Every structure is written in C-alpha cells, then in structure tokens.
C-alpha cells in the first residue's frame, strides 16, 4: 500500500490539464483467497465513478463504454491476455455527474504460479481517457489460515439482480475499492476475511484480534473467540464503527492466534467526513417549496408538510444541484441568477403580495427578462372597464408568449393567455377581457 501512495503522490504533481485530458479516474484493488483445493484466486475489483465517464443518450437511457484489458505474466513470460467490454447504463442523466454513484466489476484470476504480474488497463471509449496499473502478487501459502482483508461499504440481502459478482451466500458485499468510507453515508466499515482449516482442525478454538491504529496509536482493539466448524473455509465479516473515528488514514490488522501460531494480515482504511454545503435561497423552507413549484410541479413530494426539517433541507439542496446541472452552471451561479430575478420581481411586480409570487413574477423567475414587451389597453368592446395589459415574448427555447392583464387595476397583472409553455395554462375566456376587436396578431412570435 505504501507503493501506491507514492505513485498517487507523483500523479498529483502532474499538470491538472494533462490529467483531465488523458487520465481516467477510477479505483483498483486486489485480494487473495484460497479455493477448495487451496490454490490462490485473486479478486481484482475496480470502481469507476459515473462522473469520470462520458455518457451519450440512446434508447431512452444514457450509456458509457469502457474497454478493460488484463495482461498476466510470470518471470517476464506472457501467460495470458483478456479483453472485457463494460457497457454502463444509467436512466437518470444527473447520475452522470455523481462521484458517489459508480460502476463496480470484479475479475477472478486463478494463480497457477508462485507469483504473477498483472497489468490492468481501462479506456473510456467516448472520452478516450485511460487508466493503467501494474500489480505484482505472490500466491498465498497453501497452509495459510487467513485470506487477505477485503474492505466493504455495506452488506445487503441479495435480491437476485444487484452486483451479482459480489455475492457471498445470500448476501451482497459492496466493496470499498477506493479504501475510502464516508461517515456521511455509512455507519460502519465492514471487513471481510476467510479462515482456512483442515478436517483435523475441527473444533479447535482460535483467538482473533482486530486492531486499528492511527499515527502508531491504537484507537480500537477487539478480541473474538472462534471455534472452527468447517474444514474448508469460514467467511467472517466484522464491523468497525465510524462514529467515534476522526477523518483520516488508519492501518488495520487482524491477528489470528492458535497456540504458538500467529498469522497476521493488514489493511488500510481512510475515513472521510464531508462538510456538506446545503444550498437554499429563502430562509423559510415553505417559501422555497413554493419557488420549486415554478420549475418542477409534478416531481415535488406530496408529503412536504409532514417531512422532517432535515429532509426538507436536503431536498432543497438537491433541487439546486439538479438545477445547476440542467443549466450547466455552478450551484452558486444558478442561485444568484434566480435571486436576481426574485429581487427584480419584488421591485417591479409587487402588489398585495411579494412580486415573485405574482403571475408576472413567476414567469420572470422561470424565464428571465422578456425579449420584447408590448403594452396596451383593452377596448371599450370588452365587458369590463378599460384595463392595461402586457404581452411578453421570448426569442429562446419554444419562443413562448404570455399575455397579462391588470384585472383588478391594482398592478397585480394576471396571466390569461400563454403559448409555447406547457407549465402554464390559458384562461378559456381570455378574449372577453380584451374585447372582440383585439388584434390577435399581436400574440404571434
């Protein structure tokens, strides 16, 4: 693991532009286990965050393609080569910008040599970014009592469809290939190892010690008494609570004690704790909910009033993140833009309520400044007193047109006609407010 850290340090000294253009960011880890014949099998796990990949739309979803190459050699002799095409599909386009969501895969490699050199390469076909690493591995001794230590994010019940290659029995072990586990998303780090015994070892008692240290200081030590019940292998998963661990790098060690025999395996664990920034525009979350209705009426939670405040805050923050992705802006940028539109609406469209809550304010917050504004008055031919109206036209998108009229003559202009905007509705009697001699050609855009 120390070699990996040195290599990573060298990479981070390269120009950022070079990494961005050529380097595919992903994680790779390997673990050795013994099969029933006590031959070593290597599990090569890799994880690619969706944000590292380039997706393209097709057939109602979004797809990325990664070409993986495996080259295996021993003593400078090439033993085998393998190519794998990973087709990665997502249905939510916002997942393509996620560093939390990722694609996982596992390759099992039998070791029929005392040592192997594995060269792993991966290429994102669309972006042409490339990842490459060489791993040197020695086979586990056939009399090993412990496998390598595998770090996992969580264990879930197998529903028959999720991460099939990571099943053990009826459960799925989600590997922490990056060795980084976030306190914001998980309560525990889970380590998995296998204990190997022979038939003559059945019933013997073992002592297992789990030690976790940081800066050479022990922060956790657990003792577990075990009894051998299987003559082949016994899978063992242990939880490491994250609540009391500070963010940082830890070295873990499992020691197996039997009489005078001690066997040890080490592992690394990086605990992260993101200081998540929760985005919002209004102090009042109910006002924020009303604002969100302007942009996503059908997707809003119906149980908003019964939601806990923390859930509301996270929902609002995610709303702004999605808005930023949709508009290809930063979160702060989209919030500032909407804030400017709210302020403008409050200054110019206010009546008996804040300007952003009026019909004009709603359209202005969503669409921004109109490309053209035409003002006029209804005719004496209408059934009402003469009233002021405004026609707003936009030259972008569907080129929508909005017709507002000051029905109550108190500067609270109401939207009575719209074209080119499915989120707004016409008043079926809109023409009677203007008079039958109103020139409908004014509404063309």
Q: How would you characterize the overall build of this protein?
A:
By secondary structure, the chain is an alpha+beta fold. The chain has 3 domains: 1-31 and 46-137, Immunoglobulin-like; 143-275, Sandwich (Immunoglobulin-like); 285-443, no CATH class. 16% of the residues lie in helices and 40% in strands. It is built from 6 helices and 22 strands. Strands 3, 4, 5, 7 and 8 form a 5-stranded antiparallel β-sheet that branches. The longest helix has 18 residues, at 309-326.
Could you tell me the strand content as a percent range? Answer: 35-45%
The biggest beta sheet, please? Answer: 5 strands, antiparallel
- DSSP strand count: 22
**Residue share in helix:** 10-25%
Provide mean pLDDT, rounded. 87
- Rg: 31 Å
Taking pLDDT < 50 over at least 5 consecutive residues as the criterion, the unreliable ranges are: 1-20
Structural class: alpha+beta
**SSE string, helices as H and strands as E:** HHEEEEEEEEEEEEEEEEEEHHHHEEEE
Give the overall silhouette: elongated
As for the number of domains, it is 3
Terminal CA distance: 65 Å
Work out the oligomeric state of the chains in this entry.
Answer: single chain
Notable characteristics:
445 residues, alpha+beta, Immunoglobulin-like, 3 domains, five-stranded antiparallel beta sheet, 22 strands, disordered N terminus
What is the topology?
Layout: H1 2-12, H2 16-22, E1 27-34, E2 40-49, E3 56-58, E4 61-74, E5 77-90, E6 102-110, E7 115-124, E8 130-138, E9 150-157, E10 167-168, E11 171-175, E12 180-182, E13 188-196, E14 205-214, E15 217-227, E16 233-241, E17 248-258, E18 261-272, H3 285-293, H4 309-326, H5 331-348, H6 359-367, E19 372-377, E20 388-393, E21 401-405, E22 414-419
Parallel strand pairs: 12-18
Antiparallel strand pairs: 1-2, 2-6, 3-4, 4-5, 4-7, 7-8, 9-11, 9-13, 10-11, 13-16, 14-15, 14-17, 17-18, 19-20, 20-21, 21-22
């Amino acid at each position: 693991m120390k070699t990996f850290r040195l290599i990573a340090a060298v990479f981070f000294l390269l120009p950022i532009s070079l990494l961005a253009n050529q380097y595919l960011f992903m994680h790779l880890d390997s673990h050795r286990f013994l099969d029933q014949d006590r031959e070593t099998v290597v599990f090569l796990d890799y994880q690619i965050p969706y944000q590292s990949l380039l997706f393209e739309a097709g057939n109602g979803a979004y797809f990325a393609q990664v070409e993986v190459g495996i080259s295996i050699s021993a003593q400078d002799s090439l033993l085998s080569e393998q190519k794998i095409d990973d087709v990665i599909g997502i249905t939510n386009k916002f997942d393509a910008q996620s560093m939390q969501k990722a694609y996982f895969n596992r390759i099992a490699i039998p070791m029929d040599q005392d040592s192997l050199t594995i060269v792993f390469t991966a290429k994102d076909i669309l972006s042409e970014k490339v990842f490459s690493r060489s791993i040197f591995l020695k086979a586990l001794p056939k009399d090993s009592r412990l496998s390598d230590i595998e770090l996992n994010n969580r264990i879930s019940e197998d529903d028959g469809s999720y991460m099939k290659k990571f099943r053990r029995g009826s459960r799925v072990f989600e590997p922490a290939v990056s060795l980084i586990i976030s306190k914001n998303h998980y309560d525990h780090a889970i380590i998995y190892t296998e204990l190997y015994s022979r038939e003559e070892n059945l019933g013997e008692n073992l002592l297992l010690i789990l030690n976790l240290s940081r800066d050479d200081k022990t922060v956790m030590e657990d003792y577990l008494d075990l009894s051998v019940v299987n003559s082949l292998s016994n899978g063992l998963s242990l939880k490491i609570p994250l609540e009391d661990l500070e963010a940082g790098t830890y070295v873990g060690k499992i020691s197996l004690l039997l009489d005078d025999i001690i066997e040890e395996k080490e592992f690394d664990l990086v605990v992260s704790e993101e200081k998540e920034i929760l985005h919002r525009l209004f102090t009042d979350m109910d006002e924020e909910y009303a604002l969100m209705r302007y942009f996503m009426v059908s997707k809003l939670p119906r149980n908003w009033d019964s939601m806990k405040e923390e859930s509301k805050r996270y929902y609002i923050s995610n709303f702004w993140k999605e808005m930023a992705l949709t508009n290809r802006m930063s979160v702060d940028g989209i919030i500032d833009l909407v804030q400017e539109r709210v302020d403008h609406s409050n200054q110019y469209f206010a009546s008996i309520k804040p300007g952003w809550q009026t019909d004009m304010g709603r359209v202005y917050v969503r669409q921004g400044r109109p490309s053209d504004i035409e003002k006029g008055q209804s005719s004496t031919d209408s059934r009402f007193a003469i009233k002021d109206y405004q026609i707003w036209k936009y030259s972008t998108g569907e080129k929508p047109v909005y017709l507002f009229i000051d029905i109550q003559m108190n500067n609270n202009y109401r939207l009575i006609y719209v074209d080119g905007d499915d989120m707004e509705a016409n008043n079926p009697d809109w023409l009677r407010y203007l008079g039958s001699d109103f020139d409908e050609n004014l509404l063309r855009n």
